[in-house]
C-alpha cells in the first residue's frame, strides 16, 4: 500500500483527576469515535489527541518503545468497528459493522511525535487487534470477516502469511516465550493456538459463549479468556490446552490484562450499549478467585498495565475517559479525558 499523507492536529486536554506517584510513562488510547489517538503523559497529566488516517480499534507499542502501531479502517470509508462478532449483547459504538471488504491499514507512528506522517502497511480485511513479535519485526493482526490472522513483515512492508482461525477472530496475545499466539474467536466459541514458527493453527480450544480477548499470566502457564455473552472468564491450562476453570465477573467482559507481578488479572466489564457497565473485576491468579470489583467509567473496555505492574489503565468507551487503578489498593487514582469512544490501549515506559 502506498503511504498516506495525514493532517494531524494536536489538542490539549486536562485530566479531570490526576494523582502523583504514577510511573514515568505514556498511555495511548485508540479513539474509534473520531479517528484519533490520545497520548497521556502520566508525569504531568497532560493529554494530547492526534487525528490519524484510520478509525483505530487497537494500538500497540513496539517492544523497543519507539513506534506505535495502530490498526483500523479508513476514516473516509468506514463507519466504525461495530460489534464484537455481530450477535453479541454489546458493541463498540452502536453502529453496524460496515467495513467488510473495504480498504484497511496498519499505521506505524513515531511514539514520541505522533504529528509525524505515519507509514501505512497492509493489514488484511477488517483488522481488529494487533500484537508484535518479541523482536518487533512482525505484526500479527486479526481479520474478523475472513477468519484469519495476517502476519505482516514490518521491515519488508508486506503480508507474509494468512493463518486460518475459528470464526470472527478478535483479541490475541503472544505467549511470554514468543512461541505461540492465542486468538479469541468470538462467533466460534473457541481459542486458536498458532505456532509462530510454522505460522499454522496448532490447536483450537472450545470454550463458552463469545470469547473476545485473551491474557497470559507472566509464567505462561495459564491464559485467561473473557467470555462476553456469559459474563465470565475462562482459565486455560496451556500445558494441556484445556479450560480448567470458569469465573463469574461483571456484565459483558471485554479486555483483560495481568498486573501486580502477575498476581492479579484485571477484567474490564463493558456492559451493553443501552445499559453500560462501569466495573473492573480483579482476579487473584494464585487462588483463581475474584477478590475485588473496581468502579471506573461507563463502558469499561480496554486494559493495559504499567511495566512494573503497579498501575492498570482502563478505557471507558461511554465516558470518553481513561482510568488509572493503583494495583496495591485497587483505588482509581486518576481519570483522564480522551477522544470519543476509546477502545484499545497500550503503555510506553519512559526511562
From TrEMBL:
Leader peptide range in chain numbering: 1-19
Organism for this UniProt entry: Pollutimonas thiosulfatoxidans
Keyword annotations: Signal
Official protein name in the record: YNCE-like beta-propeller domain-containing protein
Domain YNCE-like beta-propeller: 202-345
Transmembrane spans: none
Pfam families (UniProt xref): Lactonase, YNCE
SUPFAM superfamilies: C-terminal (heme d1) domain of cytochrome cd1-nitrite reductase
Amino acid at each position: 500500500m502506498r503511504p498516506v499523507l495525514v493532517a494531524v492536529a494536536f489538542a490539549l486536554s486536562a485530566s479531570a483527576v490526576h494523582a502523583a506517584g504514577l510511573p514515568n510513562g505514556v498511555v495511548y488510547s485508540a479513539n474509534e469515535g473520531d479517528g484519533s489517538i490520545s497520548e497521556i503523559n502520566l508525569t504531568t497529566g497532560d493529554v494530547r489527541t492526534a487525528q490519524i488516517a484510520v478509525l483505530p480499534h487497537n494500538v500497540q507499542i513496539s517492544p523497543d518503545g519507539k513506534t506505535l502501531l495502530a490498526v483500523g479502517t479508513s476514516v473516509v470509508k468506514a463507519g466504525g468497528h461495530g460489534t464484537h462478532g455481530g450477535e453479541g449483547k454489546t458493541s463498540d459504538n452502536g453502529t453496524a459493522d460496515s467495513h467488510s471488504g473495504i480498504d484497511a491499514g496498519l499505521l506505524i507512528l513515531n511514539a514520541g511525535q505522533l504529528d509525524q506522517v505515519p507509514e501505512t502497511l497492509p493489514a488484511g480485511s477488517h483488522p481488529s487487534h494487533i500484537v508484535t513479535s518479541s523482536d518487533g519485526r512482525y505484526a500479527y493482526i486479526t481479520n474478523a470477516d475472513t477468519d484469519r490472522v495476517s502476519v505482516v513483515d514490518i521491515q519488508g512492508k508486506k503480508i507474509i502469511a494468512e493463518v486460518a482461525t475459528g470464526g470472527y477472530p478478535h483479541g490475541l496475545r503472544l505467549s511470554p516465550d514468543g512461541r505461540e499466539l492465542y486468538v479469541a474467536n468470538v462467533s466460534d466459541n473457541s481459542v486458536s493456538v498458532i505456532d509462530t514458527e510454522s505460522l499454522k493453527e496448532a490447536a483450537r480450544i472450545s470454550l463458552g459463549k463469545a470469547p473476545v480477548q485473551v491474557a497470559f499470566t507472566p509464567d505462561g502457564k495459564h491464559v485467561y479468556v473473557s467470555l462476553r455473552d456469559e459474563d465470565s472468564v475462562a482459565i486455560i491450562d496451556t500445558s494441556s490446552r484445556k479450560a480448567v476453570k470458569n469465573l463469574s465477573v461483571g456484565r459483558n467482559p471485554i479486555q483483560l490484562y495481568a498486573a501486580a507481578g502477575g498476581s492479579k488479572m484485571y477484567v474490564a466489564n463493558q456492559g451493553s450499549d443501552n445499559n453500560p457497565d462501569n466495573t473492573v473485576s480483579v482476579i487473584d491468579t494464585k487462588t483463581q478467585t475474584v477478590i475485588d470489583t473496581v468502579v471506573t467509567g461507563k463502558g469499561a473496555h480496554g486494559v493495559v498495565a504499567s511495566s512494573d505492574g503497579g498501575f492498570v489503565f482502563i478505557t471507558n468507551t461511554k465516558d470518553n475517559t481513561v482510568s488509572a487503578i493503583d494495583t496495591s489498593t485497587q483505588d482509581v487514582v486518576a481519570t483522564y479525558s480522551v477522544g470519543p469512544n476509546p477502545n484499545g490501549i497500550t503503555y510506553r515506559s519512559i526511562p
